[in-house]
């Protein structure tokens, strides 16, 4: 669990704790690259200050679209490497979270009620919970009814 939490803090930290140094350095490099190209730190600052319009304008959406997959893959990878035993289909909550966060990011760019009020940081974060829930439900269905 510790490796997962460190991977949430920064993609690649969980891999470093798992002694997967090359993979960890690659994830850290990719996180910094995507973060810088997407202007993500500025977007976060504007979002926390409540200046959602500036956050939307500052966001480089083509680059930021890479972030959810990178982030959730790094978390899953650190968690998987840290586990002693493998649990089948454990990747599903991570995959669906990345998908739902990406969808939230897409809709945050539109000047709809949700996009204008919540923006490119908060709306994707809100989409994490439905993604985790969907992934666990699909995993439960597969383990209960399909895989016997």
Please, could you describe this protein's structure?
Keywords: Membrane, Transmembrane, Transmembrane helix. The chain is mainly α. It has helices at about 1-10, 15, 20-40, 40-50, 50-60, 60-65, 65-80, 90-110, 115-125, 130-145. It has one domain. It is built from 10 helices and no strands. Helix 4 (about 40-50) runs antiparallel to helix 5 and helix 8 runs antiparallel to helix 9 (about 115-125). The longest helix has 19 residues, at about 130-145. The chain is flat. The mean pLDDT is about 90.
TL;DR of this structure?
Keywords: Membrane, Transmembrane, Transmembrane helix. The chain is an all-alpha fold.
Q: What percentage of amino acids are in beta strands? A: under 5%
Helical content stands at over 70%
Give the mean pLDDT.
90
State the domain count: 1
Structure classification: mainly alpha
What profile does the largest beta sheet have?
none
Give the SSE order as H and E letters.
Answer: HHHHHHHHHH
Low-confidence regions: none
Head-to-tail CA distance between termini:
29 Å
The strand count comes to: 0
Count of helical regions: 10
Molecular shape = flat
CA gyration radius, whole angstroms: 16 Å
Write the layout of secondary structure elements.
Layout: H1 2-9, H2 13-17, H3 21-38, H4 40-48, H5 52-58, H6 61-64, H7 66-82, H8 91-108, H9 113-126, H10 128-146
Helix pairs in contact: 1-7, 3-7, 4-5, 5-9, 7-8, 8-9, 8-10
Keywords: Membrane, Transmembrane, Transmembrane helix
Transmembrane segments: 21-40, 60-78, 90-109, 121-142
